[in-house]
């Protein structure tokens, strides 16, 4: 690797380096302690210094220096990990530089030319490099160390590196922490003691910042049941964030594929950079805070002041700019923020250069004044260009402002326009009114206390709108939250839900989209639609709206349209309950976009097959209970009870446990504050029932306490009639339980637990997501092992290690590409055994590491035959059960079972009697395409062999017949095996030679095989003569006599060969001769004949009955698996 020329003083460095080559202008040196001899004590000390100190010397053990005869100054210009690498640089200098240097007159000119040339070479390399770091030179050095120390595949992308201490017990090891796309690596070398740690991100269970008496602050990593601590980091918080981002990226890409959104900056694992991760994280935080679509990326951030008219002062904050939105959030504690869609901006003016201010005018005669913007001119031009307006918009802008009706709120206007456009052709199909207005229209003349209270709430909100704006550009402040806590008026609920969730922007930018989905999805029959039909009448059955066809039809259309939009989710239980409440207060199309906002942004990963998001938030809830309710924790040390009982709280936003008139108040808070509101309310519920829960004797009693509490939660201000409200509890229950007003409960939740920050919740989500997904994966492993252990003789610990190796091999082909077939095949919805499968290439590598006789290399045709033999359903994929059954035969099977496996290996579908080399190479080249092209892929590219959510109808009868056949399948006996013909028998003999190759008794085993082969052929010869009534014609006699000779010649040739490849070549002539005689003399052997003959050879029997050290084999495979992948 060429280095930026750096001055080096060699006066005291001769003891550390040994000169190997030199000429008039260059010196090639080797570091002591490397290469031949190792350097003794000096080499040991040098190796320690190289690791601890951050210097160029530790980069590589070889270097090239430039010097001139009349100067004492040397310049380092190249380094190398291996001698071959440094020799290439040396030869290049000899051929391209040495001749040119003779034309210069002075040493200064020579040095200047050499330095310029080296810098040019580095610049040329940098053009094709993907590394975008602050100090490319140091990063290149670190990359060289990373490749040298860990021997990972060259595709592995180093993201960043840090100096730190790794704690082994109570002893710290100073070294270097390397964070790459797929691995966390650490290296230390101190006085001959080398510490090397490689952990893949998908193996991590816990990742958190901790502190204790010894370590003031450290990063804790839990993987493989072992705790790892890293401390003494200069930028610990930055390091932790990068580790968290990489772990989250790996988890989403490899495990939680349903939630993985392909982001351009992160779509290719070979191009992940530190800057890309940071930008992606900031964009995610930006989208979450302002409730923007996933497509929006944070492009610019400007610090500025915003004039707040309702407070008559400037508030300090930041302008955040994306492709389609201009947002502002205060930083002075006022909790003020505003979202301005670019489509609403009608003009941008630079009002005052001295104060560096710009004025952004939006529809509705409103303007936002930003001042003290450092680069205000560029910001103004950027906003203009994104809005598509000219630099002088005064006249057109003012006329456009006048043309809009200010009295109508923007959100309503957008809704009406979008609804009109979407319902133009199908007004009869899509409902344009909220169900509550149809089934419970407000009576304007009704003056009862509840309606008066409702009118007062409406008046409060109207005052708020006049001060803070209405619609998409409304200011969100503390006062907004206060009004939410008091309760939202029935008439404004749908509008505010759309605004707070960001669904109003989704609908405005996708006119007609919902109607198209409805037209496409209605009438289709899928598993999702079947489940939707089953649950339609279970959705708020007590409400009149869902006792009629109007409500049921609207609910069906929304759920079916969403299943069509997002087939990976399709339909999940609890979606019907949530959607039915949305339909009560929002128009049908609005309800659809609200459902999109909830499922895809506000509650990520909730509504999928494994409800990962809900499980993660339950873990977050447990952490909050430990922090905020210590008294409850002391009494109930096992908090898993709260996880199980709170699942419905999170999935349905308390709708399933609270009366509908109270639950909608919770939904109000959720749309404003997100999951934080649900967590706060959950803590308030437990706090309210603290005394009753503490005295409970078991979980059932605690559940009863909570259910009675929820039954007594009321909404005293609800204007809904009794026909809509949930039936009241009995008088006896009311006597024993005092009713609780939902507004008071929500207010108490905000007062006691409002200090919980959304940022902390998101951080806790990331931390717990690792543990939740790994727990689910561990459950999958235990289920698979339980099933497989009934079929094989391997013990549970061996199966556990085998599963880890099998799963890792599956992931090794996924680490460096987004289009890996194995990654496409992984589907958590499949049966446990089918979730991880190996194609031929992955199988051949792993099987070659584990099979006991070393007769299958990863490129051998034998690997292909084994693969086809154990692939029972011939789908081009091997599951864990199939893999273990084959290994179990080799490890624990009897001599007869092992021989039967080898015998079947040479029968179809394993062995095919033509094109041995051709078929293996074609399979190797096409194996990645086989499992994809051989099937009709669904739209998402995932092959599924089990009933799938959201796709076509499933023929359950076919599955039942398949399972019945598997149950009734009788065990195969040796008499069921077909006879082996001539070409197959020749290959069978060659396989035996391959198995015996390298054994201490190799020659004895070879002679035994040759003897068995001759004996079988003679037996066949005698049998034929006894069966034939007369002597055969003369012409056939040579053929008959050459057949045994052909086989024996093949055996002799195989005995001299050392590899399966050479055996195939050497015996090809014999095979052709034997096959040519097949038309004259058709002979074959049964398995009984082969077994009986081999049983007469004690050396062969003892060889196959020799016990296998399974633990050693597994250990070697675990140590070699990654290196073998790297060497491919």
From TrEMBL:
InterPro entries: EF-hand-dom_pair, EF_Hand_1_Ca_BS, EF_hand_dom, GRAM, PH-like_dom_sf, Rab-GAP-TBC_dom, Rab-GAP_TBC_sf. Residues 1024-1073 are annotated as: Disordered. Its main location: cytoplasm. Residues 858-893 form the EF-hand domain. One of its GO terms (biological process) is glomerular filtration. Residues 1064-1073 have a biased composition (Polar residues). This is TBC1 domain family member 8B. It comes from Nothobranchius furzeri (Turquoise killifish). The lineage of its organism: Eukaryota, Metazoa, Chordata, Craniata, Vertebrata. The gene is TBC1D8B.
